[in-house]
Amino acid sequence: MLLCDQVEELNAKSPDQKFALSNTFYNPFEVTVQMSVLPPLENQRLVLKCQQRPQMIEGHFRSRINMVNECLEPGRRNMTISVTVLGVALLTVLMAYLVFGDDNDREGLVTLRLIGVVIRHGNRSPTELYPYDPHINYEWPGGLGSLSDKGSLQMLNLGKNLKVRYYKLIPSNGRYSKDNMYVVSSAAERCIMSAASFVAGFLPPLENRNELPISWQPVPINSIPRDRDHILAQKKPCPRYDEALKKLMNANTTSNEIKAINEKNEALYEHLSKHTGNNITNILDVELLYNTLEIEHEAGLTLPEWTEDVFPDKMLPLAERNLELLTETPFMKKVKGGALLTEIMEHMTKKRSRTLTPDRSIFIYSGHDVTLVNLMRALDIIDQTTKKPDFASALVLELHHSITFKDDFEVKIVYYFNSDDKFPKEISIPECNSPCSLTQFTRVMDKVTLRKYDMICSSV
Predict the structure, then answer these.
(1) 239 and 457 in contact (C-beta within 8 Å)?
(2) I need a surface site. Which of 112, 316, 416, 429 has the fewest CB within 10 A?
(3) pLDDT confidence of residue 21
(4) Which residues cross the membrane (predicted)?
(5) Cβ atoms 437, 410 nearer than 8 A
(6) What is the pLDDT of residue 257?
(7) Domains of the chain (ranges plus CATH)?
(8) Widest CA span of the chain, in angstroms?
C-alpha cells in the first residue's frame, strides 16, 4: 500500500531499488485513488506488509486507532498488486476502532468534563554540589538546576501519553484555545520548560492543518513569582508554617520519632559529613545530598566509593521521610497541599454549576516533587503512589458527568509514575464512596481546604 503523493517518486526509481516506507503518517480521507504498484521483477518477491502503529488521525477516529506502518520490499516478475487505498485504509480504521476504540469509553472517559493535571518537571542537573564532589568541575548543560535534554524528552513523552487518555477534551481542530486550556508553572525555569515540552506532546498541531514549519504549536505558559506562589513552588511566606516546621526539625523540641531517626542515623550523618565536606545533621541534609547523587548517577557519572554502602538504600528512606515531614500535621497539609487542591476543586464546582468562565476543560500545573507530595499527602493517597515522585510524573484529578448522581458529578484520581507509563494507576479516594461524587469529595477534603492563605499563615 503506497501513498498517492509517493507514486510519481516511486515510478521514477529503478525497479531493482529497494523501497522502505516506514513510520508514515497519512490521512486516509485524503487517499482516494486506485493504483498498481511496481512493474514485475524477476526472481524477487513482492510483499506488502501492514503493521498497526499508534498514531492520531483526523476526524471522528483521531487518537483512537492504530495507523498503518507501510513497508515494501522488491517484487517478483509477472506479479502486480492493485489496491484501493481508500477502501483498505478505511477498513483498517474501522477494524482498529472496533478493537481498540472503545477502551476509553469502557473506562468512563466518554463522560469526562474537566481535568486538573499536576506534573513534576523532567530530569535536571543538580541544584547544588558538595565540597568534595569529584564532579564539581563538571559542566552541566544549562547550569545547575536546569532541565536536561533527557528531561525535555521525558516531558514530551508524558504529554503524548496523557493525550491518548484525554484527547476528547482537546478541540477537534487540534488548536490551542485560551477558552479550553490553561497552563501555569512554578517560576523555576526547569518547570516552565517542562510545561512547554509537555504541551508539545499533549497538543501537537494536526499535520494537515499546521501552517507553521514546526511540529509544535506555541502555547502560553503562565508562571507565578516565587514570593507569591503558594500552590506550586510554595515559597510564599507563611510564618506560622515556618515555626511549625522549625519545631519538628529542632532536636530539642522535635517529636520522639524524628529525634529517634536522628539518633539512629548518627553514624550515617558522620559518614556523609566526612566524605562530602558538608555538615550533615538531619534528614533534610540527607535528602539534598541524595538528590545530587541520584542525578549524577542518572547522568552516567561514576559515584565515589564511599557511596556504595549508603546510596541509595540507606539514604532513600530518609529522603522520603523528609518530604513527608513538610506536611506532618493537619495544619501543614492545609498550607502546603490545600491551596492547590482547593483551586482545582473550585474549577470542578463551577464546571458543575456551569459558572466556570472561561469554560475550560484542561488545567495543567507544572511544579516540583514537593508539589506532588504535598498534594498527595493532603489527599491522603501517598501510600497508593510514591513517597518520592520520579521526574516527569503526573497526578490527574478528573471530573466526570455521571448518571449515578442527580445534579452532581463524579471525581476520579489517576497517577502516572513516570513518562514511560502508558496507562495510569487509578487511585482510591479515602473516605469517599465509589463512585465518589463531587459533593462528597468536597466534604471529605474540607479539612485541608484553604482559601485565606494570608490569614491562616499569620494567625496564632
Answers:
(1) yes
(2) 316
(3) 34
(4) 81-100
(5) yes
(6) 84
(7) 4-100 (no CATH), 109-235+329-456 (3.40.50.1240), 239-325 (no CATH)
(8) 91
Q: Are strands 112-120 and 362-367 parallel, antiparallel or unpaired?
A: parallel
Residue 404 has pLDDT above 60, yes or no: yes
Task: Provide the grid cell at 185.
Answer: 508553572
- Separation CA 19–CA 312 (nearest Å): 50
Q: Does residue 256 have a pLDDT over 90?
A: no
SS (H, E, C) 84-100: EHHHHHHHHHHHHHHHH
Residues 307, 308, 310, 314, Cα dihedral to 10°? 140
Please tell me the distance from the alpha carbon of residue 120 to that of residue 198, in angstroms, as a whole number: 11
Structural contact between residues 54 and 66, judged by C-beta atoms closer than 8 angstroms: yes
- pLDDT tens per residue across span 63-89: 443 333 333 333 333 333 333 344 454
pLDDT (0 to 100) of residue 192: 99
More confident residue, 255 or 143: 143
Distances (CA, A) of 71 to 33, 95, 285: 19, 20, 56
Q: State the cell numbers at 166.
A: 484525554
Global pTM?
Answer: 0.78
- The three cell numbers of residue 423 are 496507562
| Mean pLDDT confidence for 346-359 | 98
Mean of pLDDT values over 338-365: 98
Cell (9 digits) for 39: 512493474
Which DSSP string do the residues of 149-197 spell out, in sequence order? HHHHHHHHHHHHHHHHHHGGGS-TT----TTTEEEEEESSHHHHHHHHH
Of 431, 435, 370, nearest to 398 by C-alpha is 435
> Tens of pLDDT along 317-337?
999 999 999 999 999 999 999
Query: Closest by alpha carbon to 172, among 68, 28, 56?
Result: 56
Contacts of 222 (CB under 8 A, 6+ apart): 182, 183, 184, 185
Q: In the predicted model, what is the mean pLDDT of the chain?
A: 82
13: left (phi > 0), else alpha (psi -120 to 50), else beta?
Answer: beta
pLDDT value of residue 208: 74
pLDDT score recorded for residue 258? 86
Q: Are 394 and 166 in contact (CB under 8 A)?
A: no
Question: Which helix (H) or strand (E) element contains residue 453?
Answer: helix 453-458
CA distance 436 to 295: 39
Backbone angles phi, psi at 116, to 5 degrees: -115, 110
Sequence-distant (6+) residues with CB within 8 A of 72 are: 2, 19, 20, 21, 37, 38, 46, 47, 48
Burial call 324-361: b when 16+ CB within 10 Å, e when fewer:
ebbbbeeebbbbbbbbbbbbbbebbbebbeeebeeebb
